[in-house]
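Forum > Structural Biology > Help requests

Title: Can anyone predict the 3D structure of Glycosyl transferase family 1 domain-containing protein?

Hi all, first post here. I have the sequence for Glycosyl transferase family 1 domain-containing protein but no way to get a structure on my laptop. I'd be grateful if someone could post the structure tokens.
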Amino acid sequence: MKIGVEAERANLPNPTGVERYAAELIKNFARLDSYNEYVLYFRTKPQQWFYDLPKNFSIKVIPFPKFWTQLRLSWEMIIHPVDVLFIPASALPLWHPKKSVVTFHDVAWRIYPQTFMPIMRRYLEWSSRFAVKSANQILAVSQVTKDDLIKFYQADPNKITVTHLGLDSTFQPKKYEEVQPVLDKYDLVYQKYVLFVGSIQPRKNIIRLVEGYQKIKQANHVEEKLVIAGGRGWLWEPILKKIKMVGLDGSTKYLDYVKQEDLPYLIAGAKLLTLTSLYEGFGLPPLEAMASGVPVVVSNVSSLPEVVGDAGRLVDPNSVDDIAAGLLEVLTNRNVQNEMIKKGLERSKQFTWEATARKTLEIFNSL
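Reply #1:
Sure, ran it for you. Structure tokens for Glycosyl transferase family 1 domain-containing protein below:
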């Protein structure tokens, strides 16, 4: 069977969760499947690791200025058809094989439309509706995402499979001696900071997080810094302005996008990791923190309870007071920390990229 994979997502230089998902699946397909033939499609020059994949993987670079997935991949499917086409991020080509599989990571534009630019919101709405209707099978990265697809797009539940995201072995507990040399690059000290990892955009709820942190810092003399690590997303300007304003005293620090090779060390060195988003399709940073032996404080909405289970402290993302209370409890109670670390390490074992890839391959082979 010949399987085509839209691989441009996996090729981006500063990957976030969606891009890491695409890359990890390709790597695990290469380890697990020597029988099927894979064609990886790129719009730009592939990174070197793609050329090191096994012989049953081929590379096809097909540049195109705009609407690459919808138009250029469509033409490729017409002139060089494949048996199965896999799109790891919801935008299905206009012309595609009957056996097409699409992954949905969230439908944030439906739930928080005000956090998206109008033109992007219209594009996401159109492309998502088309993909839900046209794909043979849909993969959802969480039960919440599956439920949202059914609710907003009347998707057929029988053609949606939940395939959670996974972990790689770089996320594990690390000692001071391993971590501090990396933290020195960011002027941070082991166990002396609260960490947020994610793009700077409204639905990440960063302003309320900053306000909650400031509240406990002033009232309880918390010594840990708040560190915000992430690239700039939609409507980032007022959020970054707030971060820089409260950070004038040195209590809050913005790192911008952190290189992938540094992220496991940055997470392992934190006192706790927090993700108090208004909405997440999955929420990879809390999972990576749990695997690293770091307690997590996350929102009690969307997919985050599904990811952390009873291993994290859940808070109301709409309440600055509740965010503050959650941060304070974990930062100041050693017994709570120890229990969360223990539960987090155990729960994180349930999520692996190999398991995600195996489940995805089962879908391909069933078509």
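The domain at 2-166+352-366 is CATH 3.40.50.2000 (Rossmann fold). The chain has 15 helices and 13 strands.
Shout if anything looks off.
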